[in-house]
Amino acid sequence: QVQLVESGGGLVQPGGSLRLSCAASGISFSVARMGWYRQVPGKQRELVAGITSGASTNYAYSVKGRFTISRDNAKNTVFLQMNSLKPEDTAVYYCNAHFFSADYWGQGTQVTVSS
C-alpha cells in the first residue's frame, strides 16, 4: 500500500527557515508527480509546490522565490525548503503523490511561524 510520511515541521520565527521531507513507499516514486499542499482550519487546501517526474516545478504565487521543491528518487523522498517564512505560512503541510489517476496523501506536519 502507498504510504507518505511527512517530517520537518515545527515552530519558527518570521524570517526563519524549515525543510520538510516526505518519504514515499508503495509506489513507483520516480514516475509519480509529487506536491506539497497546505491547509488552515476553515480554508481550502491549496497547492504550495509541485514537481513532475521530469523535475519540472511549479509554485503558488505566494511562495515563489521563498520555497523550493525538490526530489531524490534514490531515496523516494520529496523536500520542501522554506525560507523567509511569514506568519501567513502557518498551516498543516501535506505531501501528495499523483500516480495513475490516483491521489495519495500523508498525515500532514504542522508549520507554525510566530514570534
Strand tally is 11
Alpha plus pi helix count: 0
**H-E string:** EEEEEEEEEEE
Amount of beta strand = over 45%
Outline, from the CA principal axes?
globular
Low-confidence stretches: none
Cα separation of the termini: 40 Å
| Major sheet description | 7 strands, mixed
Radius of gyration: 13 Å
Average residue pLDDT: 97
Describe this protein's structure.
With 115 residues, the chain is mostly beta strands. The chain has no helices and eleven strands. Strands 2, 4, 5, 6, 9, 10 and 11 form a seven-stranded mixed β-sheet that branches. A four-stranded antiparallel β-sheet has the order 1-3-8-7, with no helix packed on it.
Question: What order do the helices and strands come in, and which of them pair?
Answer:
Layout: E1 3-7, E2 10-12, E3 18-25, E4 33-39, E5 46-51, E6 57-59, E7 67-72, E8 77-82, E9 91-99, E10 102-105, E11 109-113
Parallel strand pairs: 2-11
Antiparallel strand pairs: 1-3, 3-8, 4-5, 4-9, 5-6, 7-8, 9-10, 9-11
